[in-house]
Amino acid sequence: MGGLIVVSAAAALLAGPASAQPADLVPPTSYQEQALPNGLKLITSVDRTTPNVTVQVWYDVGGRDDPPGRSGFAHLFEHMMFKATRDMPPELMDRLTEDVGGMNNAATMDDATYFYEVAPASDLERLIWAEAERMSALVVDKANFESERQVVEEELRQRVLADPYGRLFETLIPAHTFQVHPYHRAPIGSIANLDAASLDDVQAFHATYYRPDNAVLVVAGNFDPAQLRAWVARYFGPLTDPAAPIPRVTVREPARTGPATYTDYGPDVPLPAVVISWLGPTQTDPDAPALQVLAAILATGKSSRLYDGLVYQRQIAQQVFADADLRAQGGLFYVGGMAAPGHTVDELRAALSEEIADLQRAPVGAAALDAAKTQLLTAEIRERETIDGRANELGYSAVVEGSAARANTDIDDLAKVTAADVQRAARRYLPDNRGVVIRYLSESQRPAGAAAAPPEPPPPPSKPYRGPVAALLPPSQRMAPPPMGAQPAAEIPKPAERTLSNGLRVIVARSADLPIVSASLAFVGGAGADPAGLAGDAQLTAALVTEGTQTRTAREIAAQSEALGAALAAGSDLDSSSIGVAVMPSKLPAALAILGDVARRPTFAPDEIGRARKAALEAIDVDAADPTAIADLAVAPLAYAGTPFAHAAEGSRAAIGRLARDDFLSFHARVWRPDNGVLVLTGDITPEQGFALAEDAFGGWPRPTSPPPAPPTGEAAMQPRTIVVDVPGAGQAAVDVIMPGVPRTDPDYFDALIANAVLGGGYSARLNEEVRVKRGLSYGAGSELAAGRTVGAVIAGASTRNDAAAQVADLVAQTIASLAAAPPSDAELAARKASLIGDYGREIGTAEGLGARLQSLAIKGIDPGAIGAYQASVEAVTPERVEAFGKRLASAPADLVVVGDSKAFIDALRAHRPDLTLLPVSAFEPDTPTLTAAGR
Length: 936
Known about the structure:
By secondary structure, the chain is of the alpha+beta class.
């Protein structure tokens, strides 16, 4: 029978105006605009509730502007902007941001490139100065150019070549969709085109596009507008524009005259995939909102047309997707999926076409339309929780859509979309006789004698650059960055706690005025509570609680929760099992009613178990082609050998095959109980509201008569081993060193946290400096402190090209040893502490981030009130304590795991580690410390 959503009188505490429309619930972003005489546009948005600012510079140049034969060039140049300027030596941008508690990054898309920083408000003048320097006086020398080109190629290998479906999404979809417009080239480029780029190319590109009249400066956060305008006038005002006009792409993609089909092959495609793409309108076209809603109706959430029809009911797809990828000069719309085992891409293609035809024949129902729009609007609210999210929307709207005002009007347009609009858009833009079908198969399926893809045409030669070239000044002649200013105080939300009569802990923290509330219900007991031989029990139990209760079917749960703008997210880790949602406050009572139902009364129906098992096995097959995923699965079995945690939370094929309904019922009865749980509510909610709603939704859940289970524990017994997992044809290798760490409750936890930050906790940390910055061997190298309730580990490593895996393994080992050689300097320690404190502040600045941190503390046995003591605990760590933990790491047994195409590195690795163990990926089983089925 269908379930009812029952909302009690407590809902009145959160009820909004009865007449409110969906768009009314998304507060508009307030901003001011002005233009400098040199053409630079300034957009500002003040927010006094944050101690931070974000500075973003958006340039009207992207992948579409790559010179002929230089695809990926705008992206390569983005990397160069982080090197030297006339007054800034290389990597100074990180000193000005990460080392004072901020962060920086950049992104290149088809229509724009933008650079952004989030930092303490005291850093604002220095960031304005630095961005003006990067615009006007970038230094491009041969050493930095060669290094960053290697880094970009490593990024391409990681994102495109090592990902089983990276080629499909990054290169094949645009290449087959656009025939004439430069959008057919992927912004990330190709190895051949990147190798062809020269120093002359880079210098000419900067002079052509990086100029005031091609840029928008966006500043949001806590600042004085008059002071900011003065700084912008001081640093950007004197900059002049080149006399030459900015070249623009004027070619138009012709309309399609018929369908087309392409078949492509990849070396590591675990499940065949198919995509159907069509040409679409521009981002500012009146039909754009209808196409965005159409994509959500098709593939957002479990109640979406494609998931419900093709994954859940017919089970012919393992995964489905849809996207309205609309751009400044035209766009594309595509649908697709990965075929489930036993089904073909042609069968899936026909099913996708049937779903599109259904939407063309009849208008979508009111419930599905409202659910799609509510999901999109809820996502908009979550984007606006952060100053950088709001600034990003303003910058994108200004550059790509032509007006910052569209950051607000786009939401209004989205809310006005009707069922007739969606049907009309589907008919107009998605005719079956204008679709391009892309079949993506494993290389092993290529017919004998079939020709491989033709090689790229040779790139044209570079043209000499004759313009001005900046050079880094001697230290004595450089302009020093402006001094730090005054810093507004940060306010940490204060959690309130109450325990219901059934033992459920409830923690509430008001943290935002934006209309969003995060609700998460967690229980002590995750993968560590899996019975022996049943790895994956916790994770599959969590997945199944949303797939049917005594009063709601799986489809009703999906439809009802997604109608509220909430996708129920359930899962488990080593220590806990959890389920959560994020919704507008007025929808929270109904969301909690569903949350309580699925947590209390799951049925674990045999049909749903079959579907969940099938999905889990298919996910394992996909991971088997991804070196990084395989390396991640190896961490728990190796790090926690000798404890109940010594297996991957995801399980293995063998273990998942053994799991039965009684195992899920047993796990749920042991772990999913009120006196073993904690409910965390954060965002736009008061403690009084939260406690009342918790009582309504969960107060009637009876406490079992038996005591809750004791948390699993055990002493890890690591052995120093070297394990190589061979993945033939892998596009990249993953290298991990796994060392003993500490649990979260250990007195040395903050020593370990700082030591890990020095080792690999950020761009400026030692590992990234050695592997990426100095040698260009990886897109990013780093380390992680995994601190559970009773066990912990430190994992350090990087992804790199296969032939460099042994070299990277040596560099990681040497960098770990450096922690024990001497205490960090005062400057290095201060920078790493500031980085941790800044990251922490940004994390708890969103409702979901704050809730996750509070939940983690509670699950791991720490008083949630400790959320306010983080900064003091970090600041108290001394250099000597860091050195002591470094010696502890360097002297402890450690495992080295290398996953990739072993023939490229096995000999070099054996030269240093002759006792290594080589495993074919087909034998890899992460539910035992041996990583093989034979070790059970």
